[in-house]
Amino acid sequence: MIKTLPAFAAYIVQLLLLSFLATYSLTAQETEDEKTLRVFIFAGQSNMVGSDSRVSDIKRFPPFAGLEQPQANVKFSYCIGRENNSRSEGWVELQPVNNIVGPELSFVRKVTQNIKAPIAIIKCAAGGTHLGGDWNPDDPSGFKMYPLAFDLVKSSLAELDEEKIAYRIEGLMWHQGENDMFEEEYMANYGKNLKNFVAKWRRDLNAPELKF
Fold it and tell me: 182-209, pLDDT tens digit by residue?
C-alpha cells in the first residue's frame, strides 16, 4: 500500500490539474462573454415612443430619479417619429429624446443591475402606426415602418462590425396594437400579422431564435 501512494498522489494531482484547467477555461469563456455587447431592439407605436411623458415629471416619481441623465456606458441608436422623425445618425449615449421618457431608459437600468455585459439599444418607433400597414413586412404602407426599422438595425450593426465590437442580439421589444383596432381588416388579422411580423424579423436578421 505504501508503495502505491506516490502513484495515487500523482493521480490526484493530475485530477486536480485537469479540474483547474477546465474551471479556468470556463471562467475565461464567461469573462469573454461578459464583454459581448448585448443588443436590444425596441419597436412600436406611441407607447414605445414614450409619448405623453416628460423628463420634467421624473422628479414626481422617485423610482425613476436619474433617468433624465445620459448613460454614457450604454449605446443608443434611434429613429423616432413619422414625417419629421428624430434620428441619432449613429450611436450615441442613451438619453431621453425630445424631452420624452422612453421605456428603454428604465429597462436598461433594470437589466444593468442583473448582468455585467455592456448594453446597446436600437429603437424605431412612431405613434399612430399599424401592424397591418406601416409595420407590414411584406407590403408596408403609410410610413413604411418595417423597412425603416430594419434599415436602422442593419446600419447600426454594421457600425459595430466596423469598430470590431463583438455583439449579440438578445431580443426585440414590441409595444404596439391600439391603432389596428380602428381598421376592421387589421383588427381581424392582428394575430396572423403578428406571427408573420415575428417570422420576418427572424428571417431578415438571420436569427431564427430571436426572442420577442
Answer: 999 999 999 999 999 999 999 999 999 9
Q: pTM for this one? A: 0.85
- My answer on whether 86 and 14 are in the same domain is no
Mean pLDDT of the chain: 88
pLDDT of residue 82: 84
Shared domain for 106 and 90, answered yes or no, is: yes
Give which of 119, 114, 104, 107 is closest to 167, Cα–Cα.
119
Exposed, middle or buried by CB within 10 Å (0-12, 13-18, 19+), for 207? middle
Tell me if 41 sits within 8 A of 169, measured CB to CB. yes
Domain region containing 100 = 34-204
How many independent structural domains does the chain possess?
2
